[in-house]
Amino acid sequence: MPSDTSSRCWAIVPAAGCGARMGSQTPKQYLPIDDKPVLAYTLEKLLAVPAIAGIVVAVGRDDTQWRTLALANHPKIQTVIGGAERADSVLQGLQALSLFAGPTDWVLVHDAARPCVQVADIERLLQQVRGTDGGLLAAPVSDTIKKVEAGRVSATVDRRQLWAAQTPQCYRRQALEAALREASHSGLTVTDETSAMEHAGVDALVVEGRFDNIKITRPEDLWLAQAILRHQAEEPL
Ligand SMILES: Nc1ccn([C@@H]2O[C@H](COP(=O)(O)OP(=O)(O)OP(=O)(O)O)[C@@H](O)[C@H]2O)c(=O)n1
Ligand SMILES: C[C@](O)(CO)[C@H](O)COP(=O)(O)O
Description:
The chain is of the alpha/beta class. Helix 2 packs across helix 4 (173-185). The strands form 3 sheets. It has a 7-stranded mixed β-sheet with strand order 5-4-1-6-10-7-11, sandwiched between helices. The chain has a two-stranded antiparallel ribbon with strand order 2-3. It contains 6 helices and 11 strands. The site of ligand LQXTBERG has 8 residues, from strand 10. InterPro entries: IspD (IPR001228), IspD/TarI (IPR034683), IspD/TarI_cytidylyltransf_bact (IPR050088), ISPD_synthase_CS (IPR018294), Nucleotide-diphossugar_trans (IPR029044).
């Protein structure tokens, strides 16, 4: 296991999606919550973590809004053009990091669409992955889970071992890049970094996160995120 004393930590923020499920003209990462774009909340949370040395934001090729954000000029933030899928955008970020980050530096990948993450939880994840091959925030499912086929319940799934993966997900740079590239070469579609690391045989650590670390996906998620962020502003952890 590489030493953690010399390993720095970097963040990659995939922000190149089109937000199809949101159904808005504006990509959801730029939708305003109390006059501030979703992406700005997310970046402010990452900038509040002293251990994060720098942030790479992957934006869409046709993104016209990124440059309108004041944070686009932040000295700790650089930009890359994302790819067709989320994993491609993360790989573009890793490609940029390979120019200056060490192979065993930590890379924390966090969705632009998850502005409600608590800084304390990011720091807890960073603390707990030390000495491991990496891991992720996740929350145990609290609903009864049904398997559905053709609109009918075909089974009830035992939920005792089911957790919903969140972000950040945090792995060592070279290992994460190799795993994502291998997954792609194997034709494995991955929707998160941990899927690629599992495919590579890594024993990913799960750190329990909060249920309010939601991913803004559909219209109803926006007002929920607004309520969470307003609560955080009134009662910071
Ligand atoms: N090619 C892509 C697709 C997604 N993302 C980012 O990955 C995160 C999680 O993806 P998701 O919630 O699926 O966002 P979208 O792909 O924009 O949403 P949809 O699937 O509804 O289009 C988002 O911050 C999104 O901007 C990305 O950087 N590059
Ligand atoms: C990475 C993620 O947020 C973990 O739950 C999720 O997999 C992203 O999936 P999406 O389909 O790209 O939103």
